[in-house]
Specification:
Two copies of one chain form a homodimer. With about 180 residues, chain A is mainly alpha-helical. Helices cover about 70% and strands about 5% of the residues of chain A. In chain A, strands 1-3-2 form a three-stranded antiparallel beta sheet. In chain A, a hairpin with an 8-residue loop joins strand 2 and strand 3. The longest helix of chain A is centred in the middle third of the chain and has 33 residues. The interface between A and B is large, with 64 and 64 residues. The structure holds a DNA duplex (30 and 30 nucleotides).
Chain lengths: ~180, ~180
DNA sequence: CGATAATTTCTGTATAAACAGAAACAACCG
DNA sequence: CGGTTGTTTCTGTTTATACAGAAATTATCG
């Protein structure tokens, strides 16, 4: 698969941004390529197009599958695995957010629960410590609950909601 | 400053999570300590409590300031700088989100704009490429606009909104 | 304008992550 | 059962990041 100038530009950028999003360059590049491709690609395609080692592709695919944004697609008359990304960008965004919450927020929430309890039971800790830990716990908990509720909305409703933007406040009477 | 068991637990955890959030351990630990401390701390306090090199503290403070969540506090009769975190956790969350948007989303949005334009002008690119890039651009753009609008709400209104949770859908008539 | 205190920048080292290539493993076919 | 094709795991190397300690810079005070 030969890349156009635009495709190459996007893949390179996506690869660099990946490092800021907590995945390595190759993982993000594989994702970008699968996202643009007009057919499912096999590992060999990825190796040739991106110029990285076969083993590296294997690891990257596994990582992307653990995120839930790449899946295998059976191709008629082909033995080897072919891969594709989630087609719908909104769904992809949701899935990534779910996973980030699970990895980046939930463990902290659980730990804060413990810390708050222990701080309340402890002689040594100051009111300041208790207060701050509790505030943090409450905030993350509130956000978590909110997110879970949004998440149950069908994608269509969510998009509609987001597109409403600031009109929402007016309807809700939160501000002028 | 001597740490209680709870404080130590929180600081260590925050440090580890930091790496998942895109900052290094020391940066996150400094932030955690300042967050719990009941008074502004100077660099020497941080060195002693966390057991890291002075230079490392200097770099970490600079990083936290670039995020906008740590600021210096003048202390009467003291020459050296003292530092504190943003007190309000909701404000802190907003500031971090702003910064992440700026670093992790905005550059991609700009690049996608270019890619979409170039793909439309190009002979080589397929419809699939054009479509996918456009969808991605539209989604990120919509989200960005939405976020900007939320951001203008006073913190109080935002909290109220988040706490409403799924009641919002009912009011808006998006779902049953 | 020195002298001292405080902070930042620089430089080398240690640590961790990414990656290529080889080896091992698994699946499928005649 | 071999032979072939495809995938994953392992091992060493490279590369990037984090960090300590030293040196340089900046600020503050007598």
């Amino acid at each position: 698969m030969k890349l156009t100038a635009v495709q190459q530009k996007f893949i390179l950028h996506w690869g660099e941004m990946g490092t800021r999003w907590g995945v390595n360059r190759t993982v993000a590049q594989v994702h970008a390529l699968l996202f643009l491709a007009d057919r499912p690609l096999n590992a060999e395609d990825l190796v040739e197009t991106l110029g990285v080692a076969r083993s590296n592709i294997s690891t990257s695919i596994k990582e992307l599958q653990s995120w839930g944004i790449v899946h295998t697609v059976p191709v008629l008359g082909e033995r080897r695995d072919h891969f594709a990304t989630t087609a719908d960008v909104w769904e992809m965004f949701q899935v990534i957010l779910d996973e980030r919450k699970k990895r980046e927020i939930d463990p902290t929430l659980a730990l804060l629960r413990e810390c708050v309890d222990e701080a309340n039971a402890s002689e040594a800790d100051t009111d300041q410590t208790r207060r701050r830990l509790t505030e943090l716990y409450d905030m993350l908990g509130t956000l978590g609950t909110w997110y879970t509720q949004i998440r149950t909305l069908p994608t269509g409703a969510m998009i509609k909601f987001v597109k409403m933007g600031s009109k929402v406040w007016k309807v809700l009477g939160l501000t002028g």
